[in-house]
Amino acid sequence: MIIKKSEFTISSPTVSKCPEDTKAEYAFIGRSNVGKSSLINMLCNHKGLAKTSSKPGKTLLINHFIINNEWYLVDLPGYGYAKSSKTVRNKLEQMISQYILQRKQLVNVFVLIDIRHEQQKIDREFVDWLGESNVPFSIIFTKADKLSPAKAKSNALLWMKKLEDRWEALPPYFITSSETKAGRDEVLDYIDQTNENLG
After folding, report:
1. CA distances from 184 to 9, 29, 42, 72, 180 (A)
2. What is the 3-state secondary structure (H, E, C) of the chain?
3. Comparing C-alpha atoms, which of 73, 74, 61 is closest to residue 3?
4. Interval 9-46: pLDDT, tens
5. Sequence-ordered list of residues with C-beta below 8 angstroms from that of 135, at least 6 positions apart, any chain
6. Is the Cα dihedral 118, 143, 123, 188 positive or negative?
7. Within 10 A of 143 (CB to CB), how many other CB atoms are there?
8. pLDDT at 51 over 90
């Protein structure tokens, strides 16, 4: 897939305020500081499309970006940001779960995981919740440039293998780097293929 055009559409505080459109939506979510904005900008080849920040927990709304006038990339708030108040956290969790469970246009959730770390409880709980809710999702490992290719691959395989204690079929996964653009074609081809299957 070649991305010719990527534009910010709208930021919505609730799922009911999201665009009234039938186009397919691909949501991106992960823990704060996982490199989500950088990954979105890299995929779209559009520096500054999603706002990057050194302060985690900046995305507090559901952000829609229209891609090639054909589908939406949706930037969701990060989960589990410890420094925000409990009220804000609960509100965000409610907003995220309502979008994921109620949005009919949602085709796939990309869960972003920092490849440098072992499987964290919060990521695992979120992935298990998606599975229990029958939500189609894939895993994107970020920051692969911070490790050697062999170490990145073994970390990803280890992470996926740990899912086998509860999962019969494992979700697709991608190893990416916003710095080197590794994994970009694979993720975009996956979206392309999914869109074709929808058609």
Report:
1. 22, 17, 8, 17, 9
2. CCCCCEEEEEEECCHHHCCCCCCCEEEEEEECCCCHHHHHHHHHCCCCCCCCCCCCCCCCCEEEEEECCCEEEEECCCECCCCCCHHHHHHHHHHHHHHHHHCCCEEEEEEEEECCCCCCHHHHHHHHHHHHCCCCEEEEEECHHHCCHHHHHHHHHHHHHHHHHCCCCCCCEEECCCCCCCCHHHHHHHHHHHHHHHC
3. 73
4. 999 999 999 999 999 999 999 998 899 999 999 999 98
5. 100, 101, 106, 109
6. negative
7. 22
8. no
- State residue 8 phi and psi, 5-degree precision: -70, 135
What tokens does 118 get? 């072992």
Task: Report the chain's C-alpha Rg in angstroms.
Answer: 16
**Confidence class of residue 64 from pLDDT cuts 50, 70 and 90?**
very high
